[in-house]
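WARN retry 2 of 3 for item q-0093 after timeout on previous attempt; input resubmitted unchanged.
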Amino acid sequence: MSAIAFATLKEAVRKKTFIVMGIVTVLYLVLWAILLYYFQNKGFGGNDQQFKALASVMVTQMGLQFSSMLMCLLTIILGAGAIASELETGMIHAIISRPLDRTEYVLGKFLGLAILTVCYATVFYAVLFLIGGAFSLDTITTLSFMQIFEGWVLYLLVPLSVLCLTLYGSVSLRVVPNGLLMIFIYILGNIGGMVEMIGNYINSTSIISSGIFLSLISPFHTLYAAAERVLLPSTGIAGEMMRGMGGLTGTGKPASAAMYIYIAIYSVGFIVLAIRKFRKIDIN
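OK item q-0093 returned
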């Protein structure tokens, strides 16, 4: 299994997709730094401290939200063809012909991509916060170590849960249809957050239920929203804005413990389904 994980990791890093996404990430961090430079030096909001606090939250939300989206997009692109591409090209015959159990093969693929995801997301997260701290962004400089750590864990869980579903899709579908479907499901979670937010705003039980249903299909945004709640203030005008607007893509009320248990079962369940599905595929 470790050999498959290492080979998967090496192959993913060498792909042009990974290189392109790396360039996009660097460009995004440069733009983030430029935005913070103008935010701090051009005096957005003048002497209005309440507006500055509000603007700080919005700028931080933008940085976190789009970085998380980029991470999930990279995970989907790399994971969509992890197994499907080898099935399509016939390379799977050379791999499975060795004394290697199919379960070990799927878990090796997952482990290799999971290691890459964790490393990439950690660096992305750290640089994002280092840039924010360098420009004395209030929403970052006031965070405690435990807030940063808890936010990091939740931030990592978003692309990792996406990877679990994408790997199952890689066993079941071809590369392109799988990638498109995974992107659609990921977006569906953001839509679910917005629907639930609107339902809470107008106090409509049916709309809230619709948003929760979408979040059950695509629970990734729930994890991101939890990270955002940990990292962003919950008091003052900035906190009121966050609760009212729910961030850039909307969110409902904080998730219950049952929802986190569901997400854990959802993620592990798709890995188990991927293994079962792959064991039944006739490769000969």
